[in-house]
Amino acid sequence: MDGIAQPISAATARCLAASAGIIPLVLGGDSVPLDLGRSQRLFSRSQKVALAERDGGCAFPGCTRPPQFCDAHHIRWWDRHHGRTDLANGVLLCSYHHHLLHREGWVIEVIDNRTWFTPPAHVYLAQRPRPGNNLRRLLLRPVVPGAEENDAGALGAAGDVVPAGSAGEQAA
């Protein structure tokens, strides 16, 4: 690769090619790209179908709005954080919670395939992360042989849990 002295892995080469719009990283049925990287800002119809299947509706804690009333939201902002239009960076939110996140400054993180929502200090001073509606994400989580499972946080009361390794990215 021009300008790079060290060899790069095949995975890195695929990521670079996908970012440049040369190849998609993930394909759905009929070779429809599901990870668009930075080549397109808005989530595609195919991505929204995949998000609906994965999230099952609005991921905001306690919300029960079904997928047909939800928007695809960039967890890492497209413009501010150069977020990618990829399934891993997307989450379904109903219009009310989507606007609430943008207006109030909630933070979304996905840790261990669980979606966490951290309120801004003016909403909740302690800013404790709250587990989102994670049922479908948990059902689709890959099983890692030998890994210990601790679901106490996912079942605890809102505001009483803190995900391990929480770094925090501003919602988009």
Give an overview of the whole structure:
Strand 3 (107-111) and strand 4 form a beta hairpin. The chain has one domain. It is α+β, with helices and mostly antiparallel strands. It has helices at 10-19, 45-55, 95-104, 135-140, 152-155, and strands at 70-74, 90-94, 107-111, 114-118, 130-131. The chain has a three-stranded antiparallel β-sheet with strand order 3-4-5. The protein has a two-stranded antiparallel ribbon with strand order 1-2. The protein contains five helices and five strands, in the order H-H-E-E-H-E-E-E-H-H. The protein is 24% helix and 13% strand.
Oligomerization category of the chains in this entry: single chain
Strand residue content:
5-15%
Cα gyration radius (Å): 17 Å
Provide the succession of SSEs. HHEEHEEEHH
User: Number of folding domains?
Assistant: 1
The geometry reads as globular
Secondary structure category: alpha+beta
User: Could you tell me the mean pLDDT?
Assistant: 76
Biggest β-sheet description? 3 strands, antiparallel
Question: How would you concisely characterize the structure shown here?
Answer:
Helices cover 24% and strands 13% of the residues.
Write the layout of secondary structure elements.
Layout: H1 10-19, H2 45-55, E1 70-74, E2 90-94, H3 95-104, E3 107-111, E4 114-118, E5 130-131, H4 135-140, H5 152-155
